[in-house]
Specification:
By secondary structure, this protein is of the alpha+beta class. It has 1 helix and 3 strands; from the N terminus they run H-E-E-E. The chain is globular and about 35 Å long. The N and C termini lie far apart (29 Å).
Length: 47
């Protein structure tokens, strides 16, 4: 497995779980009762 960016690694430390990569980006998520929160590492190269 590749190393996660510091932000995603911090989210895992507070309870997020690794998810299947989306569009080639590492992804973590947390399932609330009414919401499935997902975070991915990505860069906006056009901004």
């Amino acid at each position: 497995m590749s190393d996660l960016c510091p932000t995603l690694a911090s989210l895992i430390e507070i309870g997020f779980e690794r998810r299947k990569p989306r569009i080639g980006m590492e992804t973590v998520g947390f399932k609330f009762n009414v919401l499935d929160l997902v975070a991915s590492s990505g860069i906006n190269r056009y901004f």
